[in-house]
From TrEMBL:
InterPro entries: Beta-barrel_OMP (IPR027385), OMP/PagP_B-barrel (IPR011250). Transmembrane segments: none annotated. It comes from the Bacteria. The keyword Signal applies. This is Outer membrane protein.
Amino acid sequence: MTDDVFLEPILPVEVVSSWYLRGDVGYRAYTGPDASYQPALGGTLGYYDQDLDDAWLVGFGLGYKFNEWFRTDVTVDYAAPSDFGGRIACIACPGLPYTLESGRISAWTVMANAYIDLGNWAGLTPYVGGGIGAANLRLSDYTGYNPPFLAATGRFGADADAWNFAWSATAGASYDLTSNLLLDVNYRYLAMGDVSTVDQIGGRIAIDDVNSHEFRVGLRYLIY
């Protein structure tokens, strides 16, 4: 009898790497962006009481899980148009001493993300991550007028869009629904840059530092 009889069988090594698909829906709460108006004759007027309403978003992506600790994905997200509003002081205006400014902002983002999974406990995996990419901000339906006069008597900004560098920071957790389907819940901070337009009298409208807090839920499907 040889020693080979007593050798333990070689067990297969578990493969933890895989491609995955993801889909997300979420709620985006914008932080108050900075905004300014530069008249054609020069100078800069700051907005006050400016606000950008919250919006719903949807996203999808393709990722790769390298091992039990590290994964990456590329995601595309769209946030529905959100109402922007603010005021500009106007002492010389014939009505009230300000103008009412309003418009709508929507956003597309394309992000390359990386995550560190922090271990699995009974199917629950917390993680942290971040991403860089590009954001397309679209500004539309912009008007500015002096109440109580009608908006039709005011200024109108041309529809415009801008591509900007974007970055994000994420924290969340996934839960194993099955061996290859995960529920993902996460928070993401996203910085998307600026967008501007010009009105019919040559004034420049700039909306800067469009950033948001996002609360997202989605599914990840592992493709072995």
